[in-house]
Automatic annotation (TrEMBL):
Keyword Isomerase among record annotations: yes
GO-annotated molecular function: ribose-5-phosphate isomerase activity
PANTHER family, per database record: RIBOSE-5-PHOSPHATE ISOMERASE
Isomerase among keywords: yes
Catalytic class of the enzyme: isomerase
Protein name: Ribose-5-phosphate isomerase
GO biological process: D-ribose metabolic process; pentose-phosphate shunt, non-oxidative branch; pyridoxine biosynthetic process
Length: 280
């Protein structure tokens, strides 16, 4: 068992170091740092480059865990709402690095296993480009195949009605996430909200749609963007753990700068010691 764990950790480290090498330029000023076990190695990779490389950079956390990583490493930090402004608008992050719970073949993501999805999405969309880093267990042809549920951040007051609505949308057994073993009661996010974990059938991508399959929820069958749009209409849902739509490179052509949720690339550490890069 310990050998398997060591292989997983070494694969995460390899992916993180490669991602930082490929996507963190010395000219960058603002860098998003996400949450999760793989991001520990992203920070380690940054620190390994030395103060001469990173001393001019400011790092933006997605929650209390990444804040702790940044502080412990002795890196400069500001929150996403503390960035300086240019012509009245907050400066863009040059790049954001974060993990993922599941990544499909179109680079759609499920995030939120660590309950940081809202701030993770704020940081990802504030960046010119977002890079996902994970181990090979997170690769999947379709979301909700390996990671069975979509994390959803909700206002506690609205949780009963949100659960009812999710069941009506075809989620068989959505549940409010427990805070156990570390905390009795519900899992409370950094924003004071609760997390609902909502299982769905594997989510379709655009190429799966046909004249007989529209992805609009019949028999619980949903296409990612259609489901995301419906979820975000439900009163009481604050944010969802689906990262979808378009990436930072595509945003420029669409005239939607700093609205992109998808990564431009995902780095996966493989059991054989290789790093597989999935580019957009």
């Amino acid at each position: 068992m310990s050998l398997a764990v060591d292989l997983i950790e070494s694969s995460k480290k390899l992916a993180a170091y490669r991602a930082v090498e490929d996507h963190l330029l010395p000219s960058y000023k603002f860098v998003g740092i996400g949450s999760g076990s793989t991001v520990v190695y992203v920070v380690e990779a940054i620190v390994s480059k030395g103060p001469a490389f990173y001393s001019g950079m400011t790092f933006v956390p997605t929650g209390s865990q990444s804040k702790g990583l940044i502080k412990t490493a002795g890196l400069s930090m500001c929150y996403v709402d503390e960035r300086p402004t240019v012509n009245g608008s907050p400066v863009a992050l040059d790049v954001a690095f974060d993990g993922a719970d599941e990544v499909d073949e179109d680079l759609n993501l499920i995030k939120g296993g660590g309950a940081c999805l809202f701030q993770e999405k704020l940081v990802a969309t504030a960046a010119n480009k977002f890079i996902a880093v994970a181990d090979s267990r997170k690769q999947s042809p379709r979301l909700c195949t390996k990671w069975k549920t979509i994390p959803i951040e909700v206002l506690p007051l609205a949780a009963p009605d949100v659960l009812r609505r999710l069941r009506a949308m075809g989620s068989p057994s959505p549940t409010v996430r427990s805070g156990l073993p570390s905390k009795a009661g519900e899992c409370v996010t950094d924003n004071g909200m609760w997390i609902i974990d909502a299982p769905f059938s594997p989510l379709l991508i655009r190429k799966d749609l046909s004249s007989t399959e529209d992805g609009c929820g019949r028999n619980g069958s949903w296409e990612i963007q259609t489901l995301a749009d419906e979820l975000l209409k439900v009163p009481g849902i604050i944010e969802i753990g689906l990262f979808y739509g378009f990436n930072g490179n595509q945003a420029l052509g669409l005239g939607k700068e700093l609205q992109a949720q998808k990564p431009v690339a995902a780095y996966f550490g493989m059991p054989d010691g290789q790093v597989q890069v999935q580019n957009a």
